[in-house]
């Protein structure tokens, strides 16, 4: 819901988990159980009156239960491309300029997602923008030798632990030690910590997409992000900033 759209023509667009949850490879019983989890835990996830300490264990609970249900469905690796093709997943308007500008100027694009990495990569691949500067850290599926989903690889990434703790040992941020400026894009309060492990940050511009429950969450977003974009399904502001910065260099 940061690079992908939150809504389109009055309807919610699917997250990478939703794409799987509602696909033809999930049984009707599985779909119902996954939907019940969403209806129970999503209001908790976005509740501005609950602390992060309260939310974290509940998010681990939600992700763990959802992943267990998905494993029970015996999803085949070979189905993933078709599942994405048949879905209503949409990247935000302006995504091509965004990916193209960063690639052309050798700017690393680090996607830190609490979704399903295999689905996310496939969305980017099908949009023809999976360039060499793109790195994804997410929840990846583990498959058996015959290509059936058996588990999700650790560590579990949920909305409120997107920080250096789940990147320990990956060395990714160390590769960025020459980079001193970051544009951070997020759509939740949990996204604010995504760059905490980058070694030598001098400038960080935090841009927040406020997609849902706008009125009740506005104050918190304005207190935390430098720029807040309300119900904006585009990357126009980000692209404008990139055009300006990259023209200067």
UniProtKB/TrEMBL annotation:
UniProt keyword terms in alphabetical order: Cytoplasm, Hydrolase, Magnesium, Metal-binding, Nucleotide metabolism, Nucleotide-binding
Gene Ontology terms: biological process: nucleotide metabolic process
InterPro entries hit by this protein: HAD-like_sf, HAD_sf, Pyrimidine_nucleotidase_eu
Keyword Hydrolase: yes
GO MF annotations in UniProt: 5'-nucleotidase activity; magnesium ion binding; nucleotide binding
Keyword Chaperone: no
Compartmental location: Cytoplasm
Catalytic activity annotation: N(7)-methyl-GMP + H2O = N(7)-methylguanosine + phosphate; a ribonucleoside 5'-phosphate + H2O = a ribonucleoside + phosphate; CMP + H2O = cytidine + phosphate
Gene Ontology, cellular component aspect: cytoplasm
PANTHER family, A to Z: 5'-NUCLEOTIDASE (PTHR13045), 7-METHYLGUANOSINE PHOSPHATE-SPECIFIC 5'-NUCLEOTIDASE (PTHR13045:SF15)
Described purpose of this protein according to its UniProt entry: Specifically hydrolyzes 7-methylguanosine monophosphate (m(7)GMP) to 7-methylguanosine and inorganic phosphate. The specific activity for m(7)GMP may protect cells against undesired salvage of m(7)GMP and its incorporation into nucleic acids. Also has weak activity for CMP. UMP and purine nucleotides are poor substrates.
Subunit structure and binding partners: Monomer.
Record-stated family: Belongs to the pyrimidine 5'-nucleotidase family.
Protein name, UniProt field: 5'-nucleotidase, cytosolic IIIB
Organism the protein comes from: Serinus canaria
């Amino acid at each position: 819901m940061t690079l992908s759209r939150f809504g389109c023509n009055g309807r919610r667009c699917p997250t990478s988990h939703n794409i799987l949850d509602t696909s033809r490879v999930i049984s009707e019983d599985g779909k119902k159980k996954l939907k019940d989890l969403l209806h129970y835990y999503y209001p908790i996830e976005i509740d501005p009156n609950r602390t992060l300490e309260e939310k974290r264990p509940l998010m681990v609970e939600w992700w763990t239960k959802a992943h267990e249900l998905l494993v029970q469905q015996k999803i085949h690796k070979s189905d993933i491309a078709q599942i994405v093709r048949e879905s209503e997943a949409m990247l935000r308007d302006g995504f091509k300029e965004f990916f193209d500008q960063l690639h052309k100027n050798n700017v690393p694009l680090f996607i830190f997602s609490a979704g399903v990495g295999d689905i996310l990569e496939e969305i980017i691949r099908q949009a023809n923008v999976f360039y060499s500067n793109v790195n994804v850290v997410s929840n990846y599926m583990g498959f058996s030798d015959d290509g059936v989903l058996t588990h999700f690889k650790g560590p579990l990434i949920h909305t409120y632990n997107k920080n250096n703790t789940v990147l320990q040992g990956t060395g990714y941020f160390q590769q960025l030690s020459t980079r001193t400026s970051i544009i951070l894009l997020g759509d939740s309060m949990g996204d604010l910590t995504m760059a905490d492990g980058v070694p030598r940050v001098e400038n960080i511009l935090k841009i927040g997409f406020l997609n849902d429950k706008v009125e009740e969450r506005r104050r918190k977003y304005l207190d935390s992000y430098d720029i807040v974009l309300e119900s904006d399904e585009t990357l126009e502001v980000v692209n404008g900033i990139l055009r300006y910065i990259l023209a200067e260099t």
